[in-house]
Amino acid sequence: MDLLDRLLKHDVWTTRKLLDICSTLSEEQLDGDFELGHRTLRATLHHMLHNMEVWTALMAGQHPVQQADCTLPGMITRLDAAESSLASIARRVANSDAWDDLWTDTLDDPPQQKSYGTAIAHLITHNMHHRAQLLYMLRRTGVTPVPEGDVFSWEAAMQAAASETAIDDRSFA
């Protein structure tokens, strides 16, 4: 697994952990106002997913489709689709060493050319920034514990899952 795979997989794993935590909250907690960023847990999650969806579509040369499902199950489905699309584009860019190749962001006025490498890096770091806001909001909501969300936690979880799979595989042998 290379660095790109690690960053993408950590990004989606951590975002999914936060979606899972948020799925245990009431509607009032999800929509409670914080004087920070997009102001609510739900709006922040939607913003993160919306950016993944729109930028991935634009990098693929497609017209972005506005996704309005802000239910927790709907946002988990949206994350699955956005993650798959982003990983596919990022892997294609990496395999062809096209990090500096340009695509046109037609939503900018006027349209602007952007590099694939910077756009992919932006999506990953953008989500990291908003996950920090989500962690703050969750703490303020009284959720404990909240995940660390760092790459080492992700790696430890992946190693534990692989170990469990190996144990399960041996039990069928």
Portion of residues within helices: 55-70%
Residues in β-strands, percent: under 5%
Order of helices and strands: HHHHEEHH
In the CATH hierarchy, what is the superfamily?
dinb family like domain
Principal-axis shape equals: globular
From the 3D structure, determine the CATH topology.
Answer: Four Helix Bundle (Hemerythrin (Met), subunit A)
Please, could you describe this protein's structure?
The protein is mainly α and 173 residues long. The protein has one domain: Up-down Bundle (Four Helix Bundle (Hemerythrin (Met), subunit A)). Helix content is 66%, strand content 5%. β1 (102-105) and β2 (112-115) form a beta hairpin. α3 packs parallel to α4. The longest helix is centred in the C-terminal third of the chain and has 26 residues, at 116-141. The chain is globular. It starts with a helix and ends with a helix. The mean pLDDT is 94.
Give descriptors for this structure.
Four Helix Bundle (Hemerythrin (Met), subunit A), 5% strand, mainly alpha, globular
Topology:
Elements: H1 3-22, H2 27-30, H3 41-59, H4 72-95, E1 102-105, E2 112-115, H5 116-141, H6 151-171
Helix pairs in contact: 1-4, 1-5, 3-4, 3-5
Quick structural gist:
The protein is mostly helical and 173 residues long.
